[in-house]
Specification:
This protein has 636 residues and is of the alpha+beta class. Helices cover 43% and strands 23% of the residues. It contains 17 helices and 22 strands. Strands 1, 2, 3, 4, 5 and 6 form a 6-stranded antiparallel β-sheet that branches. A 6-stranded mixed β-sheet has the order 18-19-17-20-21-22, sandwiched between helices. Helix 7 runs antiparallel to helix 8, helix 14 (500-507) crosses helix 15 and helix 15 packs across helix 16. The N and C termini lie far apart (74 Å).
């Protein structure tokens, strides 16, 4: 904050002049110290924000990883309980597992019988009878407990590969409900480590993945030394039950003794904690360098001011004139404004710019002499102008002493930019009446752009560019409430690519991804209204949310999707029902008079309709139990 002083008039007593000089020196030191302290707090706050954003993204990543693992185990257990563990079933399962591409998030899949003997695996093992996993904790727990959910275990050393792995397992039963064995999926700890190493958290920053009971699953730094350690005695784990699901956390690491600023986030779906940290010294190192330099400059300035004051006092003894000393002080403070990287402006009560510092050329593209005499609020974006005008009016009318505002304004060359202005009123020294405002403005465009990019990434599917599952769930809740409030229909189309697994097996995953993108483009083209939403629901399954759309409109859009895919004619030689890629579509509609009280009912109805479409031959649309017959010319 820069202050522009006015001459208070002659003071004839040398003692008052000496006191003024001393007070000015203390004020400079105090204000400089306060500003550096605020800069320090801002540095820590920015680091906390960065860690919070990183923890949010990493939690989404680990949730997605375990969700994929959980879905894989669910399918595997259902197949085992349906077909049994006989020799023929295991031979069939082993062929399926042998074809599975194990690269990626899931490292390996295993099936053990009720005695822990290996029945099938994705690993290349010559003799399955050599291995037995009945001594593993997860095996004992599944054997002792009838629970059917997925169990995420502590890290263990793989018996087939020797590396650290995280286990996810499910129990499967005999037809009589007795324990039949365990299906296990493993995730290589090194997978998390490699992923975390992509993020820059400073030379001593750490990203850690822990279970809520304190077991260390993965660590971005010195992973092999710390994975598997019991951290249940750490303060964060001990107090986790009383803490919110996410928050900032400052601690000294019990592992390496480094004090760290961190942000933790507990998964809402799994007993997992993601901890993103930066070493406190690393965060504050740039601030310390700048603070030392700034304080050195301020100390020199204070020394200059003190020396100037000394000579002024000597002059006062001779002439008793205070005006010269005050003018020198005003020149010193103006020098600070002239050298600042932020734009400093003095604004009169008529909102006219009285003074602008040279930094105005960098911040808004206008030279100081071009700004002086112009209205201070000219160029502010129309959407932000009312808010800015209200804050300035509050200052001008004495309802506030200072304000901090973030808004858009016009740069002479770059167009609209985001800026932050700190405003403070100035007063007449003799009367205390408000005579203007001092504004310090800095460019915030890059910071705002980063915020917007992070927000966009959180709602988009990385492969197709459509909305992701989370964004769809949020929009469905909003549109459901709106339809219920306004009494309008709400339609949903659930689309599944027919025989997509066969497509992947025939053409490969890269071509499979291209196929999903092509389907996504077709769906995006049908989401024509602002409220329509096309989203990837999971795997090869998509959804179209259609607010204020009745059954006829829903059918027309479903037909348009299918027609567009037929025109696209993506080859699918492995499909038993068509020579090109087709989709099965299930449609459901919520009517105000008959709709369920829960949004999930709309999804369930569309899913049932989709299942019926597949059951009746695929490549068709089913609306609420009614099959929409397609012309025979399109069935090929």
């Amino acid at each position: 904050m820069f202050l522009l002083w006015r001459n208070p008039g002659p003071i004839r007593l040398p003692l008052l002049a000496a006191g003024f000089v001393a007070l000015a020196c203390l004020a400079i030191l105090a204000l400089s110290g306060w500003r550096e302290w605020e800069a320090r707090n801002a540095t820590l706050s920015n680091a906390e924000t960065d860690m919070a954003n990183l923890a949010r993204s990493l939690t989404q990543h680990v949730d997605d990883t375990f969700e994929i693992t959980d879905n894989t185990l669910t399918v595997l257990v259902n197949q085992l309980e349906l077909e049994g563990t006989g020799a023929a079933a295991m031979a069939k399962l082993q062929v399926f597992l042998a074809r599975r591409n194990a690269a990626g998030r899931i490292h390996g899949i295993f099936v053990y019988d009720e005695n822990g003997r290996w029945l099938a695996t994705t690993e290349h093992v010559a003799d399955l009878a050599v291995f037995n996993n009945s001594d593993r904790d997860y095996f004992k727990q599944h054997k002792a407990s009838p629970a059917r959910g997925t169990l995420i275990g502590h890290p263990v050393r793989s018996r087939s590969g020797g590396q650290w792995i995280v286990t996810a397992s499910r129990r499967f039963n005999h037809p009589d409900g007795s324990f039949a064995g365990v299906a296990l999926a493993t995730i290589d700890v090194a997978y998390f480590t490699r992923f975390y190493e992509q993020f820059d958290v400073g030379p001593r920053g750490v990203i850690a993945l822990l279970q809520t009971d304190g077991a260390m699953l993965a660590r971005s730094r010195d992973n092999d030394s710390y994975v598997g350690r019991d951290m249940s005695g750490a303060p964060l784990i001990r107090s986790l039950a009383s803490r919110p699901a996410a928050g900032a956390y400052v601690f000294t690491s019990p592992l390496d003794g480094v004090e760290r600023l961190s942000y933790y986030r507990v998964s809402s779906r799994y007993p997992i904690i993601v901890l993103a940290t930066e070493a406190r010294d690393d965060v504050l190192a740039p601030w310390r360098r700048d603070a030392v330099m700034h304080m050195a400059v301020v100390t020199g300035l204070v020394a200059l001011v003190a020396l100037t004051g000394f000579f002024l006092v000597l002059q006062l003894w001779q002439r008793q004139r205070m005006a010269a000393a005050l003018e020198a002080k005003e020149a010193d403070f103006r020098m600070l404004a002239e050298q600042s990287g932020d734009m400093v402006m003095r604004i009169g009560l008529d909102e006219e710019i009285l003074y602008a510092s040279p930094s105005s050329a960098r911040v808004v593209g206008w030279l100081p002499h071009q700004l002086v005499g112009m209205p201070a609020l000219a160029g502010i974006h129309a959407d932000d102008l009312p808010h800015v005008r209200d804050r300035v009016s509050a200052l001008r009318e004495g309802r506030a002493e200072e304000a901090r505002i973030i808004y858009r304004t016009r740069h002479r060359i770059r167009g609209d930019i985001w800026v932050e202005s700190a405003l403070r009123v100035t007063r007449v020294t003799t009367t205390g009446a408000i005579n203007g405002v001092v504004a310090i403005t800095r460019d915030m465009t890059e910071h705002k752009d980063l915020e917007q990019r992070l927000a966009a990434l959180a709602t988009r599917d990385g492969l197709t560019g459509l909305a992701n599952r989370r964004h769809f769930d949020d929009r469905l809740t909003e549109e459901w409430a709106r339809a219920k409030r306004d009494g309008t229909p709400l339609s949903l189309l659930m689309i599944d690519v027919d025989h997509f697994k066969l497509f992947n097996d025939r053409y490969g995953h890269q071509v499979g991804d291209d196929c999903l993108r092509a389907v996504a483009r077709v769906l995006a083209a049908q989401a024509r209204r602002p409220a329509d939403l096309a989203a990837r629901y999971g795997g090869e399954e998509f959804v179209l949310l259609l607010p204020d759309t009745d059954a006829d409109g829903c059918v027309r859009i479903g037909e348009a999707v299918r027609d567009a895919l037929h025109e696209l004619a993506v080859p699918h030689a492995a499909s038993p029902s068509s020579r090109s890629v087709t989709v099965s579509i299930g449609g459901a509609i919520h009517q105000p008079a008959t709709g369920s009280s829960e949004a999930a009912a709309l999804i369930e109805a569309a899913d049932r309709a989709l299942y019926t479409a597949k059951e009746r031959g695929r490549d068709r649309l089913v609306m609420s139990g009614e099959v929409i017959a397609w012309p025979s010319s399109r069935s090929a």
